[in-house]
Amino acid sequence: MNRNGLYALLGALVVLVIVMGVYIYDREKEPQGVELKIGENGISVEEN
């Protein structure tokens, strides 16, 4: 494998790690549990 191919592979791996990190961070910051809303239409309960 030539040097350019090695750099391309390394760059692709770095991008993959960054994208996976952002995805995992985004999934973890979502609220977990039960959401209770009281409004004009009554009571709404949603499970996350």
From TrEMBL:
Keywords: Membrane, Transmembrane, Transmembrane helix
Stretches that traverse the bilayer: 6-25
Protein name: Uncharacterized protein
Annotated source species: Ferranicluibacter rubi
